[in-house]
Every structure is written in C-alpha cells, then in structure tokens.
Automatic annotation (TrEMBL):
SUPFAM superfamilies with a match to the protein in the record: FAD/NAD(P)-binding domain
Domain FAD/NAD(P)-binding: 4-318
Highest taxon of source: Bacteria
Transmembrane feature ranges: none
Pfam families: Pyr_redox_2
Recorded GO MF terms: NADH dehydrogenase activity
Name of the protein in question: Pyridine nucleotide-disulfide oxidoreductase
Lineage: Bacteria, Pseudomonadati, Pseudomonadota, Betaproteobacteria, Burkholderiales
Organism: Pandoraea aquatica
Record-stated family: Belongs to the NADH dehydrogenase family.
InterPro entries assigned: FAD/NAD-bd_sf, FAD/NAD-binding_dom, NDH-2
Keyword hit for Secreted: no
Keywords: FAD, Flavoprotein, NAD, Oxidoreductase, Signal
Residues annotated as signal peptide: 1-20
C-alpha cells in the first residue's frame, strides 16, 4: 500500500522539506507509487517574504510547479485547517473556500509559517497596513502609489512605521526614497518609526545599533522610542504619551507568532507559539510528525541557542525536517539539526546595509559592500533551485555545502 508524506506550507521551510524528503526517497530507489511526497498550500508559489519591504512586492513570488514536476512532488491546492494526529489525517479547505477534503499521512511536516501579531489596539485592523503577506505588501504598494492623487499635505507625505524591529527598520529605511519616486524628488516626506523599547532594534542588540542609528538619521527617518501606539484612525495615530502624528499611511510591523496549526499538536510551545522540537525536529509526542521553520523552536548548537523566525534558519531546518520524515518511513536513522553559524544582514535602504556575525552580532560589514551582499542573498541565494532533478536534490542535501555546519 502506498504511503504518504504530507508537507504543510510552501514557504522556505516547506519547499526544502518536500525536496529533501523526495531526495532521500530517490537515493533509496523508492518510487512515488511506494511513498509519495505531497505539499499542501494555497498556491504553488514561494513567496520571497524577506523582500516584501522592497518596491514592487507583487513580483516577490516564484512558481514551484516546474520544480515539483521535476522532483516528483505532488501539489494540492488548499489550506490545512485541521490536523488529526490520532487518525493521521489533515483537513483541507479549497482555495475558493467552497469545498473540503481530507488527506491521510504516514509522515507529516508542519511548515505553515507565522503571521503578524495584531493586538487589540483601537483602529489597528481598520487603519493600518502591513508587509507580512504578499497580498498585504501589494495593498500597501498600491496605496502609496495612489497618494500622488491626493491633495498635498503633511499627512499625505508622512508614513508611520509602528515597530522598530528588523522588519520595521528595513521598511522605514526604504520608504523615504520610495515616497520620493512616487511623489516627486523634491517632495518633503516624513518617515517616523515608533518603538516601545528604549532603543531601536531592541532584539538586534547593541552590536549593529550605532550603524542602524546612523543610517536612519542620514536617511531622514525619525524615531519615537519608549512609546507605543495607543490608537489609530483614518488620519493617523495617537501615541501612548499623548502625541498625535497625522499620517495617511501607518504600517504595523510589531511582532509575529507561529501558525495556529501548532495549537493542534499535543506538544509544548514557546511564547511565540512554536513547538519545542527534538534534535531531529520531531514533535516529541508524535513519532511521525515534524515541525520546522517558524512553527518550530529548535536548538541550533550545544551552547543553548535556539532558532530565530528567519529565512536563515528556515532554509536549513526544512532540509533536515524533510530528510528526517522520509528517513523515519524508510527505517533509517534521522539527522540531528545543527546550524552553528549565525549571522544577520539588515537592509538599510539607499544608505547600504549592515552584516553581523555571531549571537552577539559583531559587525563584519556595512555600507555599500554590505548592500551588495544583501542584494545577492535576497535575489539569488534564498531562491529555489533550478527545476532540474539532479540540481534540486543536490541543493536539498541537509549535509551539503549549503548546510549550517
């Protein structure tokens, strides 16, 4: 009887999980008729989520069907809304929402990613934009381009970015030049970052902070630190200190949380909703279920560090999770996930970028040189492999040259 590996999600972790599982099955001469690999996602597209702060975000998606056809992966269009770990099946809602189906599994990889947290702040849902998902980034982009049709005013030319973390910094650094391309090079524009912590980029630590502060200052980006958004309306935002900022555009970037599907697994979770997985990314109570990418909190080394919700970790976690779910069905040993190297690359718009190394984020590169490297990562390194079976399987090797060792 045919067995089935189901991968939920077509993000970085999901795509690499499916490829790595298919690779190991191929290595053991196991055909699709014996064990099939199925990916379930709304569309057969990889959204290059780390680039959604850039201009023209609608182009930041890569078709995957050619790659799946070349590697023997079956794609099912839909959204998983139910995981039954007793019956070993998932419930699927069709893209139109008009029909439902179930699909059984012998091995499961949860790679359904994360979503932006939207707390109960008055007016947040009605009056803010985001760049969390591609359709949301496109909506913001369309709104920005429509501003030129509005009467000139300070509010029209002002954007408030709520949240001064990684995403907030990148979109804020990009916006001054982006607005001037739309409104005209002589337009007087304001971009204001609101961050409740006392420092910009609180989770990035003190290492890159001087570079971030310099870049934002030279780009003309203002920062309101130690305050938060108290309420939003159609004309702007009121801060917790009572200050009102009139702005026709407010972008919410403050925090993400793991997919709600993690709540359906009988497992311990961290404060971000991520499943605390074993060394091989297995869900502790479920021998045949693995979690990866933003849905999993995993040890990266033996020094106590754990994965971040980042493309950097999702790429490698996917390779290990896919390999290991296939190994489980083949009766082969699984591989412990480790990714001992850690670095960050933060885009700072026209100013450049900054790269750091290590968990203490020591600066190794900044400015134009760093920008060139960031663009290479964003436009080449993180993209899917060619739709060629040999090339794709080589790239999906968790212990290959792209591995995290």
């Amino acid at each position: 009887m045919q067995k089935r590996i189901v991968v939920i999600g077509a993000g970085f972790a999901g795509m690499w999980s499916a490829l790595a599982a298919a690779r190991l099955l191929d290595q053991h001469d196991v055909s699709c008729d014996e064990i099939e690999v199925v990916m379930i996602a709304p569309e057969p597209m990889l959204v290059v989520r780390p680039r959604l702060y850039e201009d023209v975000p609608g182009k930041m998606a890569v078709p995957l069907l050619g790659l799946f056809d070349a590697t023997g992966i079956r794609f099912v269009a839909g959204t998983v809304d139910r995981i039954d770990t007793v019956a070993r099946e998932v419930g699927i809602v069709s893209p139109s929402g008009e029909s439902r189906a179930t699909l059984s599994y012998d091995g499961l990889v949860l790679a359904s990613g994360s979503r932006l947290v939207r707390p109960d702040i008055p007016g947040l849902l009605e009056h803010t934009f985001s760049i969390d998902q591609i359709e949301e980034a496109v909506e913001l982009d369309q709104h920005l381009h429509a501003l030129v049709q509005q009467p000139k005013s300070e509010a029209r030319n002002t954007v408030v970015v709520a949240g001064g973390g990684f995403t907030g910094i990148e979109i804020a650094a990009e916006l001054p030049s982006r607005l001037r391309r739309i409104l005209g090079p002589a337009a007087s524009v304001r971009v204001i970052v609101v961050e409740k912590a006392a420092d910009i980029g609180p989770d990035l630590g003190p290492g890159p902070r001087p570079v971030i502060e310099t870049a934002l200052s030279e780009l003309g980006v203002e920062c309101r630190l130690g305050v938060s958004a108290a309420r939003f309306d159609a004309q702007g935002v009121v801060l917790s200190n009572g200050e009102r900022i009139d702005a026709q555009t407010v972008v919410w970037t403050a925090g993400v949380r793991a997919s709600n599907l993690t709540q359906q697994l009988p497992a311990e979770r961290d404060r971000l909703g991520r499943v605390l997985v074993e060394d091989d990314l297995r869900v502790p109570s479920l021998a045949e279920v693995f979690a990866t990418g933003d849905t999993a909190c995993a040890a990266t080394d033996d020094e106590g560090h754990t994965t971040m919700m980042s493309c950097q970790h999702a790429l490698e976690m996917g390779r290990f999770a896919g390999n290991n779910v296939a190994a489980t069905l083949l009766g082969q040993p699984t591989l412990p996930y480790r990714q001992t190297r850690y670095g960050t690359g933060l885009d700072l718009g026209p100013w450049g970028a900054v790269h750091t190394t290590g968990w203490d984020r020591q600066i190794i590169m900044q400015g134009a040189e760093s920008k060139a490297r960031k663009q290479w990562v964003n436009s080449i390194y993180i993209y899917p492999p060619l739709a060629d079976r040999t090339t794709a399987f080589e790239a999906a090797d968790p212990l290959g040259k792209r591995g995290g060792k």
